[in-house]
């Protein structure tokens, strides 16, 4: 009968039997109501969040377990509305292993996670770590060298694209539920590989990154015109860039940097640089750690590798630490520059790792001996040195210079007179990209950014003969540092007019920047483009502050932001004294203002771009 029924009933007296029956029914109803009331009270108390999980006397620790095909599980609030997604392997604390059942029949554990009380479905919780990893095998998506150990520099076997890997274990889960590094078996070899370089499906592993412009098709079309490698054989899948601001290592939005050569990393000379930079927009210094034969300090890593004795050591470890600490204390972002594969001292110490003639004798090219970029032992020494310097001097970034093969190397290859130690039958471009992938991963694991220097020629669409290819390297590192010095470009004719690049700093940089803008769109994760600027006079043309500024403003006019570094080979204070005029401008801030005004930076600043 409904609550509003008006039907009348007659009263009557109950018999003793009826009274007994009524009493029994009444007691039963009371018992049921009491049970319901207690259940509701219990549920209400369950939704009352404790101030801290320590209030739970029977609390237990467990892990978030993702369901098959997923990497995360949903955590719910007191009203069973989703709070958020948490990755598998996340630590979670339960009030107890006693679940409660919701109205829909779903079982939940009352849980404490990420500072919040809530509910996690029972199927998404486990105390068995071995149950967290669902996958049993993987396929290589990006060809890389694995590591022998997850936290070491020792290079493991080369894992080729499409290769099947059997999973043996992992190091840890990230917050999003992905594995950081898998321990795998490849054939009969073992190694550690980052999850970014693998796929669960063979078809996905064999696919190549592409975009709406069909950039991968462009790479394939370019082929191998000059002996540096086939552009289509390189990796363009996005690589994770460093972001270490939360760890106290924040990269400036735009870097405005002065260069310090290996001989100048002393407290007295660094003090002069700081005085020079004071009151300007300079916010960074590029400090050279080694330069061919020369070494800034007596490196323990190079000593352990047995190669230290062939270097000319410029100063003591304590001296370099003191000099760089001065820069850090003054608030500057410090980049450690190292020459990578132009290293006569390392080549002299280990000819078996280096480029030699057919007899095994070191070959001098460009005035230097060269460790081979193909040689993994050379990789390890360079990575160990970079990691050591980053830790000893609290460097923000490592910049790899001379990440290339020697100039004109293809001439020796054509003659058959050179041994490049290419035991894995790689192209030059593959070796360089794979080295930088290896080194970047190691440095990222220690909270350090990575940059790489590139010849100005690499603004063009082809793979250079010495192995550099802009999209392949930009895809891997955090910062790509072009060296489009006007005096490095040859004279040419345009519209029947003779163009002399070193006499036209604005035009030279502008033409280069337009090309680089295209190259930056041709990979999945382009690096910040931070450019080296010519500051030295050449062939009678004076590179005063205006000529230097023309190069910088040309970059911003072409939307190549990221900053600049002022290069002069000897880094002398006398040359640097003309820099304050250049460094008085915050080009990024002015660029943003010009963008808002709908103008190019040169127009906004009313700056003459004339090279006359």
Write up this protein:
The chain has 612 residues and is of the alpha/beta class. It has three domains: 53-131, SH3 type barrels (Roll), CATH 2.30.30; 137-207, Roll (SH3 type barrels), CATH 2.30.30; 245-604, Glycosidases (TIM Barrel, Alpha-Beta Barrel). Helices cover 29% and strands 22% of the residues. The chain has 17 helices and 30 strands. Strands 16, 17, 18, 19, 20, 22, 24, 25, 28, 29 and 30 form an eleven-stranded mixed sheet that branches. Strands 1, 4, 5, 6, 7 and 8 form a six-stranded antiparallel sheet that branches. Helix 4 (267-277) runs parallel beside helix 6, helix 8 runs parallel beside helix 10 (428-444) and helix 12 (505-520) runs parallel beside helix 13 (545-557).
